[in-house]
Design goal:
Largest sheet: 8 strands, mixed
Strand content: 25-35%
Distance between the termini: 35 Å
Number of helices: 4
Number of strands: 15
Order of helices and strands: HEEHEEHEEEEEHEEEEEE
Shape: globular
Length: 319
Amino acid sequence: MTTIRSLPFALAASLLLGCGGSSATGVATPDDTGVDATAPDQGAEAPRDDTGAEVNDASDAPDAAPDWPTCDSKPLGAAPTTIADLWANPPSTPSSSWIPGAYVTAISGAGCSSSATAACQIFLADATSYADLNDAARRAIRLMLWPPASPHFAGVQVGDQVDVAAFAYRDTAKGANELLLDVSDTRRGCARKVGSGAVSPVAATLSDLGSATAYEVTYGPVLVQLSAVSATTDSKSVSKTTGGLFYPASFDAGSSEPVSVSPYCLSGGTFTAYQPNTRYDFVTLTGVFGVFRPQAPADGGVPPTYLEIYPRTMADLVR
């Protein structure tokens, strides 16, 4: 069963709305700074150690690795495939893959760092438009870049069409169940811009996205647009903390898990011009659907899964 955290930015709809539809201030968590108290090792946010520094994938042993490819052509040994084919036949172990012509929908921090110690994540889709959410399902994927890969992807931008070489597999470690691509020092890859194309979001509801299964099995990291949703900031750390979304015109009886809005893909990883103790009503909210999983607990238990929407710029939050 998926475990959901208390929300540091705002409460879920059933807690936010009282009689008459009034809102309330969110409840702060023990670490309400925008940096999670435990370091994630899976999911949509970058891994960090206890000091807050981004860290490498522990599964990548320091073995000898080939030179970094350039993606001017398909790297030797990479199997040509598509995002849809990977969803249909996900490799159980990391497999060198060549995905031509994918479109960049979001990047952590609005762009990969030139620092070899930084992690980065790029979200990819296979087309610029889809008829609806069901049409977009299983046609997007997350690319995880472990140190020292980030500088090799630093020029990639949202709206680029890229040829990508990376290692594809369905990750089932520590309670996860995610199809993803990854690149590390021992699993080297590349991305090369071959064109441009802005992906149009598809309409979705909080109920559509309200489970880990929706991300892991049904849809993947699709670019979505929610309408008429709200969130209420708490009393501090407004620039970085995530916030629970709710519909102010209705009462959510709890049939789906909370979905938060996160600044992870915004420039600097922060919201701008937000005030504490303030309810924000969004006409539309656009972003990539994702998940965040903290580090597994010391007792070896399964970490919780948190559902997120990642806007790319503040213009994605229309009020």
